[in-house]
Amino acid sequence: MPLILCVEDDIPIRRLIVDLLEADGHETIEAGDGQDGMEAVFEHKPDLVLLDVMMPVMDGFEVLTVLREKHPKFADMPIIFLTALASREHVIAGKELGADDYITKPIDTEMLIATVNSRLIQIARIKARKQMQLFRLYGALM
Predict the structure, then answer these.
(1) Burial tier of 7 (Cβ tally within 10 Å: 0-12, 13-18, 19+)
(2) End-to-end alpha-carbon separation of the chain, Å?
(3) Phi and psi at residue 76, to the nearest 5°
(4) Domain limits at 98?
(5) What is the signed CA dihedral for 125, 20, 50, 29, rounded to 10 degrees?
(6) Does 23 score more than 90 pLDDT?
(7) Is-cis flag, bond preceding 106, omega within 30?
(8) Residue 120: CB partners within 8 Å, gap ≥ 6?
(9) pLDDT tier at 140, thresholds 50, 70, 90
């Protein structure tokens, strides 16, 4: 079962998101700020991260930048911003930093679940393709 990390400093919102994901059959872990979120990524290696932008200690833009630039082993891990920063400029900035998607608050729960499931399916296809390539390479070497 894929593991989803929810990094959100607002506890009621974080609980809502986690409850929605778990009701949809997902396994979740939580973090309340960017620093704890980074530590959770390193410790648990989630399959997908839902990341707020405006948080104490380390904001979501910083977390995304560090993960994408300094930790290439997490390059394929989908990171979805879930934030109140809804301006066109913020969405563009988030995507230019490497966010895989950008969902604005207030949360459209159906959109959130559809986006998460879509990204998880995409990751499963990428992993299957990589395994097939390794299998073919192994077969060619034998």
Answers:
(1) buried
(2) 33
(3) -90, -5
(4) 3-141
(5) -90
(6) yes
(7) yes
(8) 2, 47, 48, 78
(9) confident
Domains of the chain: total: 1
pLDDT at 142 > cutoff 80: no
Report CA 120 to chain centroid distance, whole Å. Answer: 10
Helix (H) or strand (E) holding 121: helix 109-141
Closest alpha carbon to 37 in 51, 16, 21: 51
- 63: CB partners within 8 A, 6+ apart: 7, 34, 37, 38, 51
CA atoms within 13 A on the CB side of 20: 19
User: How confident is residue 1, by pLDDT bands cut at 50, 70 and 90?
Assistant: confident
Provide the CB-side half-sphere exposure for 98 (13 A, CA). 19
Which CATH number goes with the domain that contains 119? Answer: 3.40.50.2300
| Phi, psi angles (nearest 5°) of residue 81 | -75, 140
